[in-house]
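Bit of a strange request maybe. I'm writing a small parser for structure token strings and I need a real example to test against, not something I typed by hand. Could someone generate the tokens for this chain?
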Amino acid sequence: MREIFESAIEGMLTDLLTPAVHRQCADGGWPGELWNALEEAEFSRALVAEAAGGSGASWDDAYILARAAGAHAVPAPFADAIFANWLLDRTGIDASGGAIAVATQSSLTCTHGRASGVLASVPWGRHLERVVALIQAEQPCIVVLDAQRAREVEHRSNLAGEPRDHLKFENVPVLAIAELPADLSPDVLLVGGAMMRSAQMAGALQSLLRQTATYAGERKQFGKPIGHFQVIQQQIAHLAEHVSCALLAAEAAFAESSPDPAPLPVMAAKICAGEAASIGAAIAHAVHGAIGFTDEHSLHLKTRRLWAWRMEYGSQTFWSQRLGREVCANGSAALWPMLTQSTAPTRAATLE
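Reply from user aminoacidic:
Good idea to test on real output. This should exercise your parser:
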């Protein structure tokens, strides 16, 4: 299925995601034709079971879609929708498609089937049909709200100009609600979001490497391409090293996530992607020189998103600290099993 997904998504994004569409979305527009095509292909419901109308794909398959979303800088909540629909299907709620995303910053309360509160930094909040959030209680619940019924929408954006809106709800009826399965951690929204962003960043970095290498081969200085100079070759090689690490870590996180996102590989993937984003964007701009900083050049479509995504769903520092605490809490005897297994051994087992 990976090969089918890769061929189909690459062809679709290459044909429909033009510079004109990017400009339209940068001005606040919505890529309607592109989104309809993604919906018709059921890519946003790739992880939903076939019996529920999805593709029944694995996380390993979905990695291809999330990576492509990053590589092409899709100006829509495509990767967010893939994860949101998986979460709905996992909790027994109908994943019927449409523009949807998950909100990890929630102050929602729910009484008698009606919700009030604020959802902060919602991806593409102003354009969404539905939004998914977690209500913290003695028994955490997943709730789905009609995003268009928000009483107030505070328009905000990340460094890349992507909408990250605050939605305020006041006594609105919930579209669906379900208890979070006992085998899912309440931080599944954060972990799942980090996993999707790690794949998007890996895709953006891979595209950035290709674009930078191509430019270095075409741009001439002192009578020859700048890519022939050793200092440029060294910089591109350094970029390639970090891109490879990010791609490998992100793919490993998806491969280990069966059936649910695996926290430890996801932590490693987000950390690797964050480091690669900082170094990779700097190298790409250094090689491109002044032209890379212009709005007309497409380089910023990747670099600005890399700078923004490294902070979303937990920064590099956040996940590094969390990973460090996990390793220390389990002790030295558990380190090797943690490196070779998708989940950490229990602390009780470690003490034995």
